[in-house]
Amino acid sequence: VDTVEKQKEEFRRKLKEIVNMNEETKKIVEKEINKISNTNFETENGKRIEYINHIFALPWDTQDEPEWDLDYCKKTLDSNLYGLQETKERIYEFIAKNVRKNNKKGCVILLTGGPGTGKTRIAKLIGESLKRKVGFISLAGMSDGKGILGFKRTYISSTPGVLIKEMQKLATKNPVFVIDEIDKVNYRSTQSNVY
Q1: φ, ψ at 182 (rounded to 5°)
Q2: In whole numbers, what is the pLDDT of the chain averaged over residues?
Q3: Of 132, 131, 148, 130, nearest to 188 (Cα)?
Q4: What is the C-alpha to C-alpha distance for residues 150 and 13, in angstroms, rounded to an integer?
Q5: Which conformational region is residue 172 in: left (phi greater than 0), alpha (psi within -120 to 50 degrees), or beta?
Q6: Measured between alpha carbons, how far apart are the two ends of the chain, in Å?
Q7: What whole-number distance in Å separates Cα of residue 33 and Cα of residue 186?
Q8: How much is the pLDDT for 186?
Q9: Which pLDDT does position 98 carry in this prediction?
């Protein structure tokens, strides 16, 4: 068996081992695996293999169980954050609501305020108080949304977006993402360049 066939068999083995990938995505990955061949250009095969490796590097079957522990949250925030009682109360309300609902889905919290008021620190502490891995993504200085969404894999040196990279790094499919300076992104001309 040649190297290409060995590579394809290895990819198929990895694909079978993933439990929580939906069938539609599995079909797309299988299709990409089947396109790897000796007749393709080396760069074409290389880009396809890199794309498949990025998919396999995602934590499909790894997640942290949601912990909505209000006492632990209070202890974490009070020992790391002086003052800001009104902000803390809102966070406690948010956690209490999720305890009541036994929420296992994702949530979004938007923190606004002037520079230096502790928004980033509070966001990181929320992640810590939920006993979850925290990914920090700063969007300051990003000229457009390509860095967020990623580039088409047909581009030279194409890469996935920052959310995918951060999820691969944290190795869990439900981390807390702190997305800082989101108002600084110029979201334009990205739709045709998605990875």
Answers
A1: -65, -25
A2: 82
A3: 148
A4: 27
A5: beta
A6: 32
A7: 35
A8: 60
A9: 81
Torsions phi, psi for 177 (to 5 deg): -100, 125
Residue whose pair of structure tokens reads 């020992």 in the numeric block = 79
Q: Which pTM value belongs to this model?
A: 0.73
Q: What is the per-residue pLDDT for 190?
A: 45
Task: Determine the Cα–Cα distance for residues 69 and 131; give it in Å rounded to an integer.
Answer: 9
Tell me how far the alpha carbon of residue 2 is from its chain's centroid: 35
| 136 and 125 Cβ atoms separated by less than 8 Å | no
Token pair for 5? 């066939």
Q: For the CA atoms of the chain, what is the radius of gyration?
A: 21
SS3 assignment for 47-74: HHHHHHHHHHCCCCCCCCCCCCCHHHHH
Instruction: Indicate the pLDDT class of residue 32, thresholds 50, 70 and 90.
Output: very high
Residues 6+ apart with CB under 8 A from 142: 148, 184, 185, 186
Phi, psi angles (nearest 5°) of residue 39: -85, -15
pLDDT of residue 193: 45
